[in-house]
Design brief:
- One of its GO terms (biological process) is immune system process.
- InterPro entries: Interferon_reg_factor-3, SMAD-like_dom_sf, SMAD_FHA_dom_sf.
- It comes from Tyrannus savana (Fork-tailed flycatcher).
- Residues 1-53 form the Interferon regulatory factor-3 domain.
- By secondary structure, the protein is an alpha+beta fold.
- It has a domain at 1-57.
- The chain has helices spanning 2-5, 43-53, 70-92, and strands spanning 17-21, 36-40.
- The relative contact order is 0.15.
Amino acid sequence: LIQFQKGQTPTPPPFEIFLCFGEEWPDQKPKEKKLITVQVVPVAARLLLEMFSGELSWSADSIPLQISHPDLKDRMVEQFKELHQLWQSHQRLPGAQPPPG
């Protein structure tokens, strides 16, 4: 993610996790042809990628996390707010490189 943000790699890192149930995988069959596949998208990873790629479309005050333990959700929201503020202050520093794109 850091290399992507610095423009050192052209593509963002993958953050989706694919699970396959009931069949061997990986094999020659594409995942779309498997009986049961699940795609897991960690919200935290997606938000970090959006933040560092400049595609951030959420307000730091209204992060739609779906975590069952409320204290954990509150801590994560606060950490994302702090990370977002640090990132914004870094972008304002003299000599800071603007994100690619």
